[in-house]
Amino acid sequence: MDSPEYLEAIERECTEITAAIQSSASLAVPTCPGWRVADLAVHLGVIQRWAAEMVRTRAIERLGDREELFAVDPDGPHLDDWFREGARDLVEVLRSSPAAAPVWSWTDERSVEFWSRRQAHEAAVHRWDAQLAMGSAHPVDALLAADGVDEWLSVFAIGRSRATSKRSGTGESFHFHCTDEAGEWVVRFDGDGIDVQREHAKADVAIRGTASDLLLFVWGRQTPEKLEVLGDSSLLPRWNELLPAV
Questions:
Q1: Does domain 143-242 have CATH number 3.30.710.10?
Q2: pTM to 2 decimals?
């Protein structure tokens, strides 16, 4: 995917989140314990304003406490307008900025493109959360979801989640395979380390499903019941031990 596709995804997903705010702001979000749709909207809206400001200023360091800078009362008036305006500003800032321009991130990839990608996936997963609160959530677009699985494995699993685990790997390997879009990954654990390869290769356990279902699985939104599991299924509980939720 490229920057224009990420920006289209942000616009699309945020339009649906705005609709959820307008109809269901007070509903509890099952996948985000303690949050209502309104709280989810504030969380995402704050992140979007924070990311937009870093891109706008070409920040070389992390921009301060985003909650102090941008938070708003989730029970205040016109939350839908506040959210819509933040999403629109984010897209405008990203669209007007060169994709390769340097901007701080917590990874080695420090560019505007990183933030376009990150915000597209942040919006997509939280759109799904908001719609689930309403009783039915449609899948994440297959191309976006496959890219989201890749982002989770290459950014969050390697850069954040593995470091928080107290479990040592003993050579366990997991093969993820999208059934509706190009995308295969093999993840191997050894000691404190993790190795992620984009490849088709034999692993201890293979996990197959739509890109959306795989994305929701790695983000802890769905259990494996909707996925096809081949090989040593007893290793599945180890996945969350080796890669705790972020």
A1: no
A2: 0.96
